Amino acid sequence: MVRVRSDLPALVLESHDYGESDKIVTFFCQEIGRLTLFAKGAHRSKKRFTNKLELFSFVQISYSRRSAAGLALLDEAELINSFISLRLDFTRYLAASVIREYMLLVTNETLNDDNIFQLALWALHSLNQAGNRRQVVALFLVKLFDYLGYRPNFSSCQKCGRNPENGDSAVFSTEAGGIVCSRCSPPLGAASGWMTSGAMQMIGAVQQQPVNRLSRFKPAGTVLDQMLDYAYRYSRYLFQRDIHSWKSFVPRSLPR
Ligand SMILES: [Zn+2]
Prior knowledge:
Layout: E1 2-18, E2 22-29, E3 33-39, H1 46-49, E4 58-65, E5 72-81, H2 85-88, H3 90-106, H4 114-128, H5 133-147, E6 170-173, E7 178-181, E8 194-195, H6 197-208, H7 221-239, H8 246-249
Parallel strand pairs: 3-5
Antiparallel strand pairs: 1-2, 1-4, 2-3, 4-5, 6-7, 6-8
Helix pairs in contact: 3-4, 3-5, 4-5, 5-7, 6-7
The structure holds zinc ion (ZN).
């Protein structure tokens, strides 16, 4: 048995029972990305793992590998923050579930982006501290797309190149990867994805800022609705699949 890493910061993304006493746990880890480990005796060994392998928990893990094939073994987990409110408050749980679903969707064993790790940590931390859950999810998603390499253009029309004037609305086009101005778009009502200039400016500003500045942004009202609508539609386009946790999280911004 060879110890691979010790004291590695990690977030619990998934945790399944295996047999009567074991668990299979998927983490998103700083420096190495997604990692699935076998937690032997997780149910029996109260001291070692109890309350440390719950969803959303922020832990430090140590793990070993017996051979190149098969799951590596979780040796120890030390709790840094259990983000307990996310499991006690149902509305926060729903928002954290959206973060978790996107993390499972976009990460893999080769993606070890520290920005994405910090972003997920920021989102869970903010939700745990009673941050506005719709704001946190909207800001998380705008930054997530950015870190994955998708930065749609919200400042100039993707058809004519014109910059919409302050106060002008435009349509966000998933296919064009940016906005299409009111001169180039079909008449209002014929297309979904209309955005006010406030929402476009907010998204453009969030794209420019690092994770540690996200808490300064406080989108509200129509701007927040449109950011969430954009994030949902764009992610469905990018990943070509439904986001199951979204329906319980924010039903009123779902497209009909
Ligand atoms: Zn145009």
